[in-house]
User: What shape does this take?
Amino acid sequence: MVIFATAMQRAATIDIGSNSVKYLVVEYDEQKIVAVQERVEITRLGEGLSTTGILAETAIQRTIRRVRQMVRDLKSQQVNPIFIVGTMALRSAKNGRDFHTQMRAAHLPPVNVLGGDEEARLGHLAVTSTLQLGSGKKSYCIFDTGGGSTEFTFGQGSTITDRFSLPVGLVPVTEKYLTADRPPRKAVMSAMDEVFESLKMLDGKQTDTLIGIGGTVTTLGATHIAIEPYDPRKIHGIKLTTQAIQTLRERIFLVNLEERKRIPGLDPKRADVIIAGVLITQVIMEKLK
Assistant: This one.
């Protein structure tokens, strides 16, 4: 018998969020999938969406420019297929069709807009494929705080017991309360109160293990251990206690934007929304403790 080795294939997904556009390139064959490249660009597609209900034309244009460049770069590397997905901003905006129309006019692949439950399901799939969650006796909650929403999945072992998406994200909280260079205490407390109210669906829920995924918690993790340059392998699986988050809050809240950009481990592109990220994470940890 002769076994012929097949070359690894390459594919990519471009994720269009309310705050950022990111892509992930994987190599795969019949036996394994390996992530080989990722890139993140802040485009703030959801800018002003929480107050106007529509995507700003300038936000649409700058986001499509970044997507076009990403597609061009991926094609130059012979990556095929390229899948494009959209999340909160595209599923909630009244003029979401305008974005799709302009994508077609730019001769870009179609965008598959994910529902909130589907976002949560995919987050669960990502975690259960990379972390050992035990025998199934202990419960867990997976959360992903993005630019426009936060997804939650509750489960035990490989079984999902509940999943949902709540419209609590970095961009609307920042735009409403935290635009000052160094937000005053009153603004921070008002933001905290709104996040508590917006996450009331968590009231009464409990979990043995809380797992955070996505750019918000990985930024907090990188800042906690002051990792530079960013290395996802060093962030994956680290533990953040309530005290660690409180310490990060004290470091981040007491400085202005330019000083935040210089904090080791904190991605400067996320410095203007990270205060909202800390608040949302703190509330989630408090409610599910």
Summary: Residues 43 and 135 are 41 Å apart (CA to CA). The two ends are 57 Å apart (CA to CA).
